[in-house]
Design goal:
Blueprint (H helix, E strand, L loop, with lengths): L1 H14 L9 H6 L5 E4 L3 H13 L5 E4 L8 E2 L2 E5 H7 L4 E4 L6 H13 L1 E3 L13 H6 L1 H10 L3 H16 L12 H9 L6 E5 L5 H10 L5 E5 L3 H11 L5 E4 L2 E2 L4 E6 L7 E2 L6 E6 L1 H5 L6 E4 L5 H7 L1 H7 L2 E5 L6 H12 L4 E6 L8 E6 L1
Helix pairs in contact: 7-15
């Protein structure tokens, strides 16, 4: 029996040999001897502090970027500037508690990492649970299947680096896997002048703008779905006067129904529990198109990607549209979504790319023939 267990462990290690990190950043923080300061406030800090409580990790204090320090308190801690912490402490560890998606802020975070021990814990945007090595073992078959399905070596590098980052919280894993959005469009998506584009999670029209810049305003028609009312108003203002662009104030889903929705007038608006949200009508892509063609579909719907894919299943099977799908909202997205798309249309070539972001947000799947 012991021999069988040892054989099993060897098989698992061989199966997931692209995962090299075994110890989570939470476990490292448990053993950290330096004072621990959280950098940032808001939802991310709340989630991290909740995990700290579970692991018995002590928060020494909180600091924020200078523009956000107003002498106020967050969760009982007076919010400090980094310079104030550095004057107070000889050395300390920093835990990043927010997402950074532009170069100036990312460079600031990297400069902090050069002076102090930096941890960037992975907490899911939507849903619960932690992405640990044990979680990978529980889903080893699915993770390995996705790894083997990926269409190029760089996708496999991105996939393994993202997983190792999510376990360890070490931003070095994100250093050499960043791809620009323009490079993705040119080398993978390759937009043409005859697109039938469906934009799920259209926000204020930013992705439509990107597409039109590449195609020089040439397209057949565009369908844009955005559930947040304030974002929807911005979207309508952007597309005003543009022909054959249709906007819908709906949530993307697998069927037509009403769903509870939490509006934040930004990118993080999302479906929620009924006690903290208003109801919004949902639509599926298949219903929206009514059997018409789609050549390109983007899905960035804050954790509802699985349902949105099911809602486009007939379109995906019939028309083979190129797909751009967010993989970073839920822990399981990174393996469940590629496998679902492969199940619906095994002809697709699957690519994974990560755009400039800390933590591993803007990690997306691209499916093309």
């Amino acid at each position: 029996m012991i021999q069988n267990f040892n054989n099993f462990k060897r098989d698992v290690n061989k199966m997931l040999e692209f995962i090299t990190e075994k110890v989570t950043c939470w476990e490292k923080l448990q053993k950290e001897n330096k004072p621990i300061y959280i950098y940032g406030m808001g939802d991310g800090a709340m989630k991290i502090m909740s995990v700290f409580k579970k692991y018995g990790i002590k928060t020494t204090g909180i600091f924020a970027s200078d523009d956000f320090v107003r002498g106020h308190y967050f969760e009982g801690y007076k919010v400090m500037r980094l310079s104030e912490v550095e004057e107070k402490e000889e050395d300390f560890a920093v835990v990043l508690a927010f997402a950074a998606g532009y170069e100036e802020l990312i460079n600031r975070i990297k400069s902090i990492a050069k002076k102090h021990t930096l941890y960037v814990p992975d907490v899911p945007v939507i849903g619960s649970g932690l992405f640990t090595y044990e979680y990978c073992l529980e889903n080893k078959d699915k993770l390995q299947e996705v790894y083997d399905l990926l269409a190029d070596d760089f996708s496999r590098t991105v996939f393994s680096s993202i997983i190792n980052f999510k376990i360890s919280g070490n931003i070095d894993y994100l250093e050499n896997i960043t791809t620009t959005k323009l490079d993705i469009y040119r080398k993978i998506i390759k937009p043409n002048l005859n697109e039938h584009y469906v934009d799920l999670g259209a926000y204020n029209g930013d992705t439509i703008r990107e597409l039109l810049e590449i195609t020089r305003n040439r397209y057949v028609r565009i369908y844009a779905m955005e559930p947040d009312k304030k974002n929807f108003k911005k979207l309508c203002k952007y597309i005003e006067g543009k022909k054959h662009i249709y906007a819908y104030n709906n949530a993307a889903w697998c069927k037509e129904t009403e769903l509870p929705f939490s509006s934040r007038a930004g990118r993080q608006s999302s479906l929620a529990n009924r006690n903290s949200a208003h109801m919004i009508e949902s639509r599926s892509v298949d219903n929206l198109l009514g059997g018409d063609e789609a050549t390109l579909i983007k899905m960035d719907v804050e954790g509802a990607e699985r349902e949105a894919i099911w809602g486009a299943s007939q379109t995906i099977s019939r028309y083979n549209p190129r797909l751009m799908v967010a993989l970073y909202h839920r822990n399981e997205d990174i393996f469940e979504l590629p496998l679902l798309i492969h199940k619906l249309n095994p002809r697709y070539k699957l690519y994974i790319r990560h755009q400039l972001y800390i933590p591993a947000w803007e990690t997306n799947l691209y499916a093309v023939l």
